[in-house]
Structure prediction request, 489 residues.
Amino acid sequence: MNNSATGSLKQRAIFGIYWSSVQWVSQVIVNFISGIILARLLSPDDYGMLGMLAIFILLANTFIDGGFGFAIIQKKNPTEEDYSTVFYWNVGLAIVLYIILYVCAPLIAGFYRVSLLSEILRVSGITLIINALRVIHECILKKRLKFKKLAIASVSSSVLSLSIAIWMAYNGYGVWSLVIQNLLLSGLPTIVYWLTDKWLPKLVFSIKSFKELFSFGLYVLMNTFASTFVSNIQGLLIGRLYNPALMGYYSKAHSTENLASNTVSLIVRQVAFPVFAELQDKRDKLILSIRKLTTTMSFVCFPMLFLLILLAKPLFILLYSVKWIESVPYFQILCVAGLAICLQSINTRPLLAIGKSKIYFYWGLVKQVIGLALIVGGLMIGEIWGMLIGMVISAWLSYMVNAALVSKYIGYSMRTQAFDIFRVLSVAMLSYGVAYALGVILPFGMYVVAIIQLIVFVILYLVVSHRVNRTYMLNVWEFISPLLAKFKR
Prediction:
C-alpha cells in the first residue's frame, strides 16, 4: 500500500470516526432526554419486562447476521452474488426465527410467570425481519467507510421514535411505549436505506458464495451467540428468581453503563474493523493502528467511567428521579466491568481482520464458559451482588485473553499493552481518589459537592496526563483536530 493510499485510508477513517461521533453524541442526547422523561413516566416493572425478553431477541438477531456481516467486510472484493446470497439467507432465516418465537411466546411468559410477556415478545420479534432487510445495506456502507448515511439514518430514527414513545408513555401505554420505540429504531433506518441506497438484491443465490462466506462467518456467529448469551443471562436469571421491579433497576443500571462503555467504543469499533481489514497485509501499520486506538480509547473511556462511579448517585437522581436510587450500586459495579469492555472493542477486531476466525471462536468459547460459570456461581454464592462481581471478573479475564491473542498473532506484546493501559489507569485512579476524598470532607449539599468533584477530577486528570501521558493526548488530538475542522466547515 503506497503512502497516498495509506493517507486516504487514514482520512476516511478519521471522517468515519467523525460521523460515528455525530451519531454517538446525538444518541447520548436522545438517551439523556429519554432518561429524564420516560424513566419518570414509566415504572421499573415496565423496563423489567422488556429486560426479561432481551436475551431471546438478541440471540435470534445473532443468527440473522450469522457472521456474514464480518465476512463481507473482511473479504477484499465481495461480489454482487455475495451480497444477494447473504441477503436472501438473512431474510429467510429471520422469518423462521420469528415463527419460532411466536409459537414459544406463551411458554416463555409462563417461565417468568408474567402473562403479558407473550404479547410483548410476539410484537417485539418483528424486529428480526426488519433487521434482516437492512444488514447488507449497512455492511456495504461500513466497508466503504460511508458512516455519514448511517449517522443520519440513526439520528433521525432515534429522534422520531423517542417522540412517539414519549407521547405513548404520557398517555398511559406503559411498556408498549418501549416496545414501539424499539420497533421504530429498527424500522425507520431500514426504510431510509431502501429508499436512498442504490443497492438492490439480484435474483441469485450462490452456494459457492454461501460456503465461502459461511466458512469464515460460522466461527464469528458461534462466538457472538455465546457472548450474547453470557452477556444477557443475567436478565434471564434475575427475571426468573426475582420480581420485574428488581429486573427494572438492573436494566436501567446496565443500559446507563452500556451507554458509556459500549456506545463510546462503538464509534471506534465500527470504523476499526474495516480499517484493520485493509491493513491485514501490512503488519507494522496494523500494530501501530491498534496501539493508537487502544491508547486513545483508554484515555477517553477510563476517566469517563471513573467519573460515573464517583457521581453515580446525584446523576441517577437528576436523570431518572429518586425512584431509581436502587440502581446506583448496580451501576457502579458494572462500570468497573466497563473499563475492560471498552478495551475489548479494539483487541477483538484484529484477529478477524487477518482471517483468524477459528482462533477467535475457540478462545471466545473458553471465555464465555468461564464467564457463565462466574456469573452463575456468583449468583448462587452471593445472590445479585455475587453475580455482579462475577461479571466484573469475567470482563477482565476476557480482556486479558484478547490481549494475549493480539500479542501472539499480531505482535502487539502484552507487556506493551499493559504499559500503555496502566499509564492511563493510574492517572484516572489518582484523580478519582482525590475527588472522592473531597466528597467525604466537604460540608456542602450533594449537587454542589458533585460539581466540585467533577471540576477537580477533570483538571487533575488533564494536568497529570499532560505531564506523564503527553503522547496519548497528542494521539487524541490527532483524531479530534480533523473532526473539529470538519465541524467548523
Notes: Residues 357-409 form the longest helix (53 residues). The radius of gyration is 22 Å. The chain has two domains: 10-241, 250-489.
